[in-house]
Amino acid sequence: MRKCIRCGAEMEENYTFTGGGGNVIRRKGSSGKAVYPKAAVCPKCGEVSIYVDEEQLKKLMD
Ligand SMILES: [Zn+2]
Question: Residue ranges per domain, the chain?
Answer without folding.
Answer: 12-61
